[in-house]
Each structure stands twice: as C-alpha cells, then as structure tokens.
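Quick illustration for those who missed Monday's session on complexes.
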Amino acid sequence: MPEPYKIKMVEPIRLIPPDERRRKLFDAHYNLFALRAEDVFIDLLTDSGTGAMSDCQWAGIMCGDEAYAGSRSYYNLESVCREIFGHRYMVPVHQGRGAENVLFSLLIKPGQMVVGNMHFDTTKAHIELKGGLPVNCVVRDAYNTSVSGLFKGNVDIDRLERLITENGPEKIAFILITVTCNSVGGQPVSMANIREVRRVAEKYNLRLFLDAARFAENAYFIKNREEGYGDKSITEIVREMFSLADGFTMSAKKDGLVNIGGLIGIKEDRELYNQVRAAMVPIEGFPTYGGLAGRDMEALARGLREVVDESYLRARIGQVEYLGGRLLSAGIPIQQPVGGHAVFVDAGKFLPHIPYDQFPGQALAIELYLEAGVRAVEIGSFLLGRDLVSGTQLKSPLELLRLTIPRRVYTNNHMDYVAEALANIRQRRDGIRGVRITEEPKVLRHFTAKLELV
Ligand code: F0G
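Prediction with F0G bound:
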C-alpha cells in the first residue's frame, strides 16, 4: 500500500558538486555534524526532530495557547497522553534528554547502576553525570547482525537477574527499557519480554521505566510479530506496554511527530510526580510548559494521535524495509531484520581492513557523503568513546553506519539513490581509509570532535 497521505508543500534540496563536497568535509574536520545542512543532499543523520508535520499539526501551531501557567495546549496534551499511555501524570520537557536530566537526578544515587537493554548515548551520559553506572543487558543476538530475530531489542532476563542478585537490589537505581532499541538497530522489544522484566522488577522491588522515543514503531512490530497481538489496535498495544512500566521518558522528536519536545510520564506515584514537578522549575520550566511553547504542545498532542495510526506505521516501517531490501540485494551487510527507524550498515563487515580505533563506521559515513552528498551517522566505537577511568578507547561490539529515515520526508526514489551510492562504494571499498581523532571533548565527543584521514 502507498503512503496514507499526499504532499501539500515541498522543500528544495540541492546536490553540490563532488569537489565542493570534498572541501566542505575537509573544513568540517571529517565530522559530519559540522557540515551545514544545506550542503547535504539527503540527510539521514537522524530521525529526531526531522519529520514532516501534517496539515492538522500545523493548524494546531496556530491554535497554541501561550499562557505561562495552565495553558489549554498543556491540558490537550495531558488528555491525549492519558488516553494513549494510560499514565496518570505527565510533564512536558524540551526534548528527551531534558526528561532524562530531571528524572535521573531524582532517582540515581552515586554508585548505583541503571540496567537496560541498551542505553542511548544521551541516556548513558545523563546516568554518568548523576554518578550512576549505565549497564547494557540486551540479548546476545543483537550483536550478530546476520542472525535474524524477531525481537533483537529484548533484555537478557537471566543476565538482568544475575546482575541484581550479584550486586544487590540496593545497587540498582531502576531498570530502563528502550523501545525500540535504537543503539542495536531500532530493534523491537516484545511484550512478553517487557512483562518478564516487570516480573523481575517486582521481585526485587525495583522500578521499571521505558525510554519510549519510538513507542509506536515498537507497538507495530509487536502487532506484526508477536503471537496474540495481530488483532489488537496499536493504541491497545501501546497501553499494554506502558501499563507494565512505572513511568517513562520520551523524546517526542521521533514518534511524537514534532520537531521539538519531550515528556516524562509517571503511572501513579504521586510523590515522584511532585518531586518531578519541583525539579522541573529551575531546569526545564514551569510544569505546564516544560521548555515548550504552547504551540509545540498543541502539535505534539496531534502528532501522538497520528503516530498510532496503523496505515501510517505500515508505510513508515515499509520504507525502512524497502531500503534494507535494496541494500541486501546489492550485497551490503546490514543489521537484520531492519529496525523501525533506520537501516544499520555493518561497517565492520563492509570495511574489514579498518580497525575499530580507526572507526570504520565513520570512514563509511565520510565516503557516502563524498559519493552522493548523503549524510549518515556512525554508531560504533567513535560514538562509544573512552573508558572513564583509564581513558582508553573502548571497542564497540558493533561498528555500524546508521541510515536514519526521517518520518514522512523522503520518497522511495531517495531510498534508491542511497542504495545505489552504497553499491558504488562497495566496488572500491578496499581503498577506503580509516580516521583518527585530533581533538575531542570529554562528554558526547562525537558531536564536536575533529578528525583526519589516516
Ligand atoms: N532516547 C533515545 C532512545 C533516543 O534515540 C534519543 C535521541 C534520546 C533518548 C534523547 O532524546 O534527542 O530528544 O534529547 N536520539 C536521537 C538520535 C538524537 O539521533 O537517535 P533527545
């Protein structure tokens, strides 16, 4: 089935000539975050805040209520959240990391672990900034890109329980499941797995939260892959997922279908909600706007309703699958099956002659920009960074290049073009060089580090 929408407005994009691309990349110190977006032809850096809003959302922008306190748009958002997620309390925040900052400052005592399937990089950073220790506990298959699995984002339950018993539950601040699991390829987590984690959490009296940036995509996979869910609506599945959690953080820049925004949800713990409200004021803002304009909340309320439409999700995830299929038939190794928001190329396999500390994923990102003006992002050792104590470069279990597809933005012609570019690169891959870092900040270095070709 084609997309359940048509295009009312277009935005021109331009491919600059190859020699200009080479110069721009040199000036950017081979860090694609330092490029100007107008020098990028197809931008697959992220699906975060890069989606297209609908006519209904844009109309909502005009209806936003900009009251400082008690805005109508806040109450609209609250009622949509209650309806879709079934949690009693929510506060808006400016984006996902704002939610992490506020919530984690209340929940983590220095030295405590936060265990999850795999924490996203800002999540990991916020856990560490509060003195906590992020621990990833995803199933083994997630690290093997050629083993197909239905729910490669699942938590390894045995390891989770072992971690709790070996360290003692008091050493665990809370459990956090990321749905879908971005860092291993947008892989989904099954309802059965969330339920198992819930059982373990209750057994040891621990709280369970969801990092719910891509909750609707996860629900779509449950509907299509997990027994017993085929006849349920996306909203029913979402409600069931969230009913198993004590609360959530959410970057609304993904499945909220907005360009900015985030949420903290709390199922029923009034005391925690009151603490969150108090912590919000000096950081994100008064709890009925949380760093957002009234119009942003209005657009988000409408985006949340649109994202749980199954025909939208079918087209969305269908497009990601389409690109994955094109790459596979060109002999390019990718994480299989493809996830919800991106195709992850296994750059470690694609460029086996480049060692992890010369960042094969980054080398491939550079090559893809030079070849076709396409911007993608490394998810591997460059992103992972250094050991906090020894300062040595960590080796990521996977060296990936993420081709992240913005929502409702590109057509399948764009996907064909990207696939052809990678197929061309494959012909000359033996000559591709790695990179080394010349300058880097301590936290989240990949955004601003400078690099050179080896
Ligand atoms: N959690 C997950 C799973 C994410 O993917 C992100 C952001 C965040 C939290 C933080 O949210 O950006 O709104 O502050 N992911 C983007 C990405 C940046 O490119 O994957 P944020």
